[in-house]
# Entry
Amino acid sequence: MNLFAKLDSYEAYLEKNPFHKLLNIDLEQYGEVQKKIEKSAYHSVDPNLKEAFAAELDDLVRLHYLVTSRNVTTILEFGVGKSSMVFDHALNLNKNRFSSYVENNLRRSNPFQCFSIDNSKKWIKVCKKTSKTTLVNYHYSRCSISTFNGRVCTYYDDLPNICPDLIYLDGPDQFSPAGDVRGINTNHPDRLPMSADILAFEHFLLPGTLIVLDGRTANARFLKTNLQRNWSYYHDEVFDQHYFELVETPLGIYNKRQIDYCLGNDFYQRIK
# Structure
């Protein structure tokens, strides 16, 4: 699965789509866009962290590119943040380019909308105040420890009732879910995030749907083990990102129209 074959230059892509300005990032100070930022071993598992993670432009460029190159219409994002602003920018581009076609030809009831769910009212409030997004719907929900087929995992208690064609799994953090199963939960620095929400609604998703995880390798392997439909899977170890694409034949005329317009013949080649 090569989703970025036509992404030749990150710098050139940012020059054409300067969403970094919305994040107040000075490219000269930032340095090489494609360079990975190394953090301390406990940086991402600090329960007392009070500040949002610094922007990583290489990850954000790829997310923006996926939305624009795949003509994405509806996004479900687990975990609000800088990615929410990037999705908003990319969806606005898509809306300006082909809103008329989508309205007249596709069955998309939430076109050009991003639904961002988070279990922190604080972070939602901060994101709303600082992001100035126009196409993002912020959705608060508690998060709880539960099981999937007897395996301990986490679920958001309340999800937006939508049909996304792009899902970005970057939440919750491992310290937020409430409860435990026989004393087991994720609230420990050596534990790992283990979201199972996607597994619960997998069979409602349309062929052509793309799932993206940034890091969260254990969670990606959990999904890979338990997803039941025909998903192609790719782990980019350099970027530490995981991609699942639902490569099945279209469900019907409207799904086929969406695939034809948004993904084209390349998708049918991936089915083969």
